[in-house]
Each structure stands twice: as structure tokens, then as C-alpha cells.
Amino acid sequence: MNLSTHTMRYLKLIPAIFLLAPTLHAEPLPDMLRECAAIKADDERLQCYDELSGTLDELAKRNFGKEHEAATGEAPESLVTTIEKMEESAYGKQFFYLENGQVWKQTDSKFVSLKAGDRVELDRGLLGSFFMRNANGGKSIRVKRVR
Fold this sequence. Notes:
Order of helices and strands: HHHHEEEEEE
Number of domains: 2
Keywords: Signal
Protein name: Lipoprotein
Shape: elongated
């Protein structure tokens, strides 16, 4: 059996796995897309994408109502980055412009002792909340990502 025949048989099993075993945790979509992209032969890669697209409807039905879980399943629990600049809103709350391009807004009324150039850690809280604190330690403030 050559590699392309073996690969083709494997690829044909992917939709069957999703349809026959709905209680199993499916491989995340980005991983499946990477597997297709890694296939060198054009016709095999196209077939992989075609078969993957057939599983998307089934995947969407199984994940209905759990979209938030799927989106955060691969996200890290925390992120360390640097504040590029800060701006104060009309109500005295801060906007934080980070080196990674993200913009976060303070949502609580705590005093902010952070400044541009500080390394900060963003931590995931419960129920979709986030907290920011100096990466060296200290009190956290509640923040929300705006961009």
C-alpha cells in the first residue's frame, strides 16, 4: 500500500468518525484544516477539504449552544504583554493599548497603578470575565476587550 492510498483511506474515515461517534470529543477544526493543508498532492488536499466541508454541518449541529466553549477551548488561561499607551475615558476608567494590538477597557472602579511600558498579565475569570494586573504581582482590575 503506498502512502497516498493509506492517506486516502484515513481521510475517508474522518467524516465517519464524526457521524458515528457524536459522544467523542471531535478534533478541533483548526487542527483538521492544518492536516488538509499539509497534504502535498493537489487532488488529495482538495478531497480532504471537500470531505471536511461535509462534516461542518454536522459539527455545527453538535456544537449548537456551545459556541463560546469552542472559541475558548484552545485559548490560553492568561497572557503576558506590555502596555503601549493608556487613555482615560469620560468616567475615569482606563483604556489599555497593548503591544499585541489588543485594546482593553477597565470595567470596575478600582484605582489603576499601571502605566505605559508596564508588563501586564491578563487572566481569564469566571463567566467570560477578564482581569489585568502588573506581571510582577499586585491587585487585579476587571477589564473587557474592545478591540
